Automatic annotation (TrEMBL):
It comes from Candidatus Stercoripulliclostridium pullicola. GO terms for molecular function: symporter activity. This is MFS transporter. GO terms for biological process: carbohydrate transport; sodium ion transport. Signal peptide: none annotated. CDD domains: MFS_MelB_like. GO terms for cellular component: plasma membrane. It holds the Pfam family MFS_2.
């Protein structure tokens, strides 16, 4: 039996990733602006919501291995992963809609209860769709090169989905509001359209793919994750530096809310998101060429320090100078792109490092730890922004003061500046040079060839 995956199937798998990213990007990018601009919550309500969302995001950081264990124990006829994908489609769609369609007539406690339950269930349903989707790469083919191609196709299509929703999400909500301003109903309809189309496309990963490789592969558990951390000093430093530098993700988490509160128009997030997205994509393209001249450690440290300086300088730009602020966001996007590439590459180097030192290769545990750190960064960014908004006493229905506007802006400038600067400190102690990483890779490659 051929291990090649048909082109049609690869494209279907990629389009499914596009649809999935449309849905997750809509929730991750615009839920905060809906909460602050359209749920009509008091300061106490926002405080309760802060606790709910932070707890849910911490759970999100730890539940992937739990889902992996469930997949490992549940058996379906003639398939291992695709049935989970089918099961998840309707819940993800419905809970995405519900998050943006909280009944306005309910008391605040009722709205908070519905939102909290919907958010936790949405997160659980999304995990049910996400873990099997990426796991399909191992069951669609036993060939590692084909798996790499599948992942590349999925990432490419996924980035298209992310870009589209970042650029048109607000416009979509405003268009469905059928007026001069965006309404809660507009957001609800936009969420419905995006989730139905997105998860409809995602269903292709069930209907248009085939599982061919049923060799049982060990799921990555918390034990694997902790073991990977225990013996891997480079990985420890990468993850500590990444988590401390969580502020670099604040613009992604709260940018649309800042556009509404600070600049008075959530529609301006289209330009803000585009500024970051364009430079981020450019930097991911040029990073391999820069690494020929500058080592990973040095690029990580200097790009973060430069970003910290830019973030800090941005805070002192008058809020009326929106296009100057856009230029600053554009420059910070380069650092974000560098970070994304460097973090993955450095984790991969750490896998080789430990295998050379101990003879054991724990790829799954190392990359599971990286995923965990990414979700923890997202949780900390959400918490930081919501706490700042509580400090400046923001609540819907009151006049937005200069303090509120500046507070929201502080959250996406000064906090990232401090975070990026502090996040470089662990990397000064990163022990693995590029030359050593190269020697480790060559040693393992030659050993594999001689085996």
């Amino acid at each position: 039996m051929s291990s090649k995956v048909p082109v049609k199937e690869k494209i279907s798998y990629g389009i499914a990733g596009l649809g999935q990213n449309m849905t997750i990007t809509f929730v991750n990018t615009y839920l905060m602006v809906f909460v602050y601009g359209y749920m009509n919550l008091s300061a106490k309500g926002l405080a309760a919501l802060t606790a709910i969302m932070f707890a849910a995001k911490i759970w999100d950081a730890i539940n992937d291995p739990v889902m992996g264990g469930i997949i490992d124990k549940v058996h379906f006829r003639n398939a291992k992963l695709r049935p989970f994908i089918l099961i998840s489609i309707l819940p993800v769609t419905l809970f995405t809609i519900l998050l943006f369609a909280i009944p306005a007539g309910l008391p605040e406690a009722g709205r908070l209860a519905i939102f909290g339950i919907a958010y936790i269930l949405w997160d659980a349903a999304y995990t049910v769709c996400d873990v099997p989707y990426w796991g399909l790469t191992s069951t669609m083919t036993p060939d590692t090169e084909e798996r790499t191609k599948l992942i590349s196709v999925a990432r490419t299509f996924g980035n298209v989905g992310l870009g589209v929703i970042t650029l048109v999400g607000v416009s979509l909500a405003r268009w469905f509001s059928k007026g001069d301003s965006t309404t809660a109903a507009g957001w609800a309809i936009a969420a419905t359209v995006v989730s139905v189309i997105g998860m409809g496309l995602f269903s292709l990963s069930y209907f248009m793919t085939k599982e061919r490789n049923f060799v049982k592969e060990k799921e990555t558990s918390f034990k694997d994750l902790l073991k990977a951390l225990k013996v891997n000093r480079p990985l420890q430093i990468i993850l500590i530096g990444s988590v401390v530098g969580f502020g670099r993700t604040l613009i992604q988490v709260s940018g649309s809310t800042v556009a509404l509160v600070t600049f008075g128009d959530e529609g301006k997030f289209t330009l803000m998101g585009a500024a970051v997205l364009v430079s981020m994509i450019c930097s991911t393209v040029v990073t391999p060429f820069i690494l020929k001249k500058v080592g990973k450690k040095k690029l990580m440290i200097w790009s973060s320090l430069i970003a910290a300086a830019i973030y800090l300088a941005m805070y002192f730009i008058p809020l009326t100078e929106f296009y100057v602020i856009l230029a600053g966001l554009f420059l910070t996007g380069f650092s974000l792109g560098f970070f994304m590439v460097l973090q993955t590459a450095m984790v991969a180097d750490s896998v080789d490092y430990v295998e050379v030192k101990t003879g054991e290769r724990n790829e799954g545990g190392c990359f599971a730890a990286m995923t965990f750190s990414g979700k923890l960064m997202n949780a900390l960014s959400t918490l930081a922004f919501m706490v700042i908004m509580l400090i400046v006493h923001y609540e819907q229905g009151t006049e937005i003061t200069y303090t509120m506007r500046k507070g929201a802006y502080f959250a996406v400038t000064v906090i990232p500046a401090i975070s990026c600067a502090l996040g470089t400190i662990p990397f000064f102690f990163y022990p693995l040079t590029d030359e050593e990483a190269r020697r480790n890779s060559e040693f393992l490659s030659s050993r594999s060839d001689n085996a």
